[in-house]
Amino acid sequence: MSTRTPESAASTSPAARDPRGPGRPAPPRPHPAVAAGAVGVVSAIATLAIAELVALVVAPAASPLLAVGSLVIDLVPGWVKDLVIALFGTNDKVVLLLCLAVLVAALAFLSGLLEWRRPPWGTVVLGIVGVIAVIAATTRAGATGMWASPTVAGVIVGVLVLRFGSERLSAWIGVGSSGRQVDSRTAISPDPSLADTAVSRRRFLVFTGATAVGALLVGVGARVANAAAAAADTARRALRLPTAATPAAPVPAGADLGIDGLSPVVTPNGEFYRIDTALQVPGVDPATWSLRVFGEVEEEFELSWDELLALPMQESTVTLACVSNEVGGDLIGNALWLGYPLRELLARAKPREGADMVLSRSIDGFTAGTPLSVLQEEDRDSLIAIGMNGEPLPVEHGFPARLVVPGLYGYVSATKWVVSLEVTRFSAASAYWTDRGWSAEGPVKTQSRIDVPTNRARVSAGTVAVAGVAWAQHTGIDRVEVRVDGGDWTEARLATAISADTWVQWVYEWDATAGDHTLQVRATDNAGTTQGEREVPVVPDGAEGWHTIDVSVS
Ligand SMILES: Nc1nc2c(c(=O)[nH]1)N[C@H]1C(S)=C(S)[C@@H](COP(=O)(O)O)O[C@H]1N2
Ligand SMILES: [Mo]
């Protein structure tokens, strides 16, 4: 349909004139059934857009589009598949998607028409399609009940669009019962004057047009992000990690004291803390991933995923800590990383004289600035890591590749979803958190934490195991001391540390007497530094102070 200006309307043919009007030309009307069907199509687009958006948060594979497509592939009889493949070859998936699109468009058109002519039958059609999509989504491999939520949210929004759109259409050209009659109960103006018609026409067009544009933008954006996440997921599942050319020494016997409630010496991936600025975890397909090494170097280069995998890998157990970890906090974890030494990559790039920083960048724009000299140290296992505790990096921990640097807080070193390393200078570049008030350099501070008993616990009198972890990555812990009610410091027993790059468990057998008591811990590292009493907030370079808990003994 076209819009007309008053000037062009003057020459309009009599056929376009409203027979009821005072001789002025009426705005053009679409065929009512076409407009009603269009409402159905817009409602379907809105349904799919919202579903894709929710699937982004829930699980990429929970998208009804994907779920129904996969269900159809599973249900289609073999001879149809053979026929389609014979006719279209490797384009069979494209054909399937096109068939689905035609089917969805036809159903959408029908639902719009029905909602206008015989409400609420359009809603019923949308509901039935929704139920089929929910079944498809919740019966997929690995699905949970939550996988219904994208479809449910989409259908709710779709129904609203369908009803509202039909109402606006009725207000403009009347209710479509039997295609002719006008129902005065639902039509806002059953016999509209020309002015009313123009207003309701505009309202209808604005609503359907704006909804269509908004839903298309949201839907296409969410689908693209979902496709990336799904590709990353599939690639991760298919990945077999290379074996380490330099394996880590096994975890020494006696590294884990096996005390109930004490943090395990190696943190399982599912329990590992997660900190990042990503609202939506970036989905990075290794097939399209590469690492660019550039800046103040003699030899810029780009490393593909296959090239990285072919390099001799090294394993190292390293405790990662967040600068935002409060005294006693849990933003710290210890894992076995598999990766390639950054020192080797930098040696290949040949940094120029005067460069002192490596600015690593994530695919989502996050940056960290790490001292070049730290990354070049021979005896420090700074890695570009692809494995975590024997698995490919979990997507939320940086798949396909991230940095791990022993002894530095994550915000200055541990870039996840890393895509480039720029050799530069602290005087020339600043990283994400440095621009937000945090210190440019972030060496980990020596710290200790009491895990058991927990703060305000009630324990029985007698021998109580007071236990926890202590860390001073890349320096190592020399001793841990505990004191009760501000008394003398007593040395706790240290477990065997995996290495100076990891935390170490400790335990103190406390002879607890009835009453309320305060327990405190402090660690001394291998450089001779003992944690001080002074409390320092996390901003700008990490918290300080003694972890202190209260327990009640009876
Ligand atoms: N891309 C990206 N990488 C990042 C961050 C981020 O926000 N984005 N946060 C960093 C911070 S502050 C920390 S403490 C560690 C946390 O890593 P984890 O989530 O694997 O525990 O990742 C670092 N790497
Ligand atoms: Mo952090």
Automatic annotation (TrEMBL):
A Pfam family reported for this protein in Swiss-Prot or TrEMBL: Big_7
Biased composition (Low complexity): 1-16
GO molecular function: heme binding; molybdopterin cofactor binding; sulfite oxidase activity
Protein keywords: Membrane, Transmembrane, Transmembrane helix
Key word Transmembrane helix present: yes
Biased composition (Pro residues): 22-31
Regions that span the bilayer: 33-58, 65-88, 94-114, 121-139, 145-164, 204-225
Region of interest (Disordered), residue spans: 1-31
Domain (Oxidoreductase molybdopterin-binding) ranges: 279-429
Gene3D superfamilies: 2.60.40.650, Oxidoreductase, molybdopterin-binding domain
GO BP, one annotated term: sulfur compound metabolic process
Record-linked PANTHER family: SULFITE OXIDASE, MITOCHONDRIAL, SULFITE REDUCTASE
Name the record gives this protein: Oxidoreductase
